[in-house]
């Protein structure tokens, strides 16, 4: 009897997800949260355009001298170490400290954390500043959870997202952050619950910085629902995946998919969300 009740409860949760996703999508559009992005040169454009298409307000601001005046006014912070340099790390740490002190949610994208000791040390320092969410590919999450290098290929993952479930749960418990692992199925966990997002298309991986873009979108969603980071993170990943699916219907390749994805994100309506969102609980 208990097993039956548990299965019924899981079905109910799954049915409620599309409504939750639509609610958060409309909240981002109506409140237009200000999202500060300290990110890499490759991703600035697509991150800013993703945020604008979703209804948020992007600010690609990283000068250390401006943070004291600017960061207190943001609704969420996104830190991405893609083109990390010693000059930018103090700004990242200062902004994260300010966000934490002010109770603002912030999201860490540990791009290629496995590639060098410099990146690994920087991410571990940032992780100590209590991000609300960590989003990476499977190799990044495994490396960060194990505090080790050498588990990826350039900036690409050599693992599937499902390979990183245990590492993600461990990292979530150790850091207090929700951990999201991007892949064919996106995995999201708070260390106890594990959620799977089954939206998106494979060609999104052929567009540079789509992972960076969805991290920024997570920041926008968590800005409007900071008390529920697991739900906000899963919702953002699903919305981005749905936009990719809809964009792929018109795309002829990666370049046109990039354009159509952003258009689809801007034009998402309730019917599309309710019919396309695929989020499940994972044992």
TrEMBL record:
UniProt-recorded Gene Ontology molecular function terms: ATP binding; hydroxyethylthiazole kinase activity; magnesium ion binding
Biological or metabolic pathway of the protein: Cofactor biosynthesis; thiamine diphosphate biosynthesis; 4-methyl-5-(2-phosphoethyl)-thiazole from 5-(2-hydroxyethyl)-4-methylthiazole: step 1/1
Keywords of the record: ATP-binding, Kinase, Magnesium, Metal-binding, Nucleotide-binding, Thiamine biosynthesis, Transferase
Protein name per Swiss-Prot or TrEMBL: Hydroxyethylthiazole kinase
The protein's Enzyme Commission number: 2.7.1.50
Coiled-coil residue spans: none
Keyword Ribonucleoprotein appears in the UniProt entry: no
EC class (word): transferase
GO BP annotation list: thiamine salvage
Cofactor annotation: Mg(2+)
InterPro entries: Hyethyz_kinase, Ribokinase-like
Family indicated by similarity: Belongs to the Thz kinase family.
Source organism, top-level taxon: Eukaryota
Reactions catalysed, as given in the entry: 5-(2-hydroxyethyl)-4-methylthiazole + ATP = 4-methyl-5-(2-phosphooxyethyl)-thiazole + ADP + H(+)
Taxonomic source organism: Stephania cephalantha
Function: Thiazole kinase involved in thiamine salvage pathway.
């Amino acid at each position: 009897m208990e097993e039956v009740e548990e299965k019924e409860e899981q079905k109910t949760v799954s049915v409620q997800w599309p409504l939750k996703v639509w609610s958060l999508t409309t909240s981002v559009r109506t409140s237009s949260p200000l999202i500060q992005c300290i990110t890499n040169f490759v991703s600035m454009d697509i991150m800013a355009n993703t945020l604008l298409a979703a209804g948020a307000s992007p600010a690609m601001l990283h000068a250390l001298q401006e943070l004291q005046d600017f960061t207190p006014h943001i609704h969420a912070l996104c830190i991405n170490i893609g083109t990390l340099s010693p000059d930018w790390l103090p700004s990242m740490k200062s902004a994260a400290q300010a966000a934490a002190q002010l109770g603002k949610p912030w999201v860490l994208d540990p791009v290629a954390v496995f590639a060098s000791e410099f990146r690994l040390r920087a991410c571990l320092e940032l992780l100590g500043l209590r991000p609300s969410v960590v989003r990476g590919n499977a190799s990044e999450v495994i490396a960060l959870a194990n505090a080790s290098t050498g588990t990826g290929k350039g900036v690409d993952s050599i693992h599937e997202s499902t390979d990183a479930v245990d590492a993600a749960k461990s990292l979530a418990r150790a850091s207090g952050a929700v951990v999201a692992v991007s892949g064919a199925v996106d995995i999201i966990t708070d260390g106890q619950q594990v959620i799977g997002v089954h939206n998106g298309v494979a060609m999104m991986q052929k567009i540079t910085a789509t992972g960076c873009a969805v991290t920024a979108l997570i920041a926008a969603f968590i800005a409007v629902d900071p008390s529920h980071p697991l739900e906000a993170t899963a919702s953002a990943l699903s919305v981005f995946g749905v936009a990719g699916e809809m964009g792929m219907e018109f795309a002829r390749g990666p370049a046109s998919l990039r354009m159509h994805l952003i258009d689809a994100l801007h034009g998402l309506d309730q019917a599309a969300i309710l019919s396309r969102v695929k989020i499940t609980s994972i044992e």
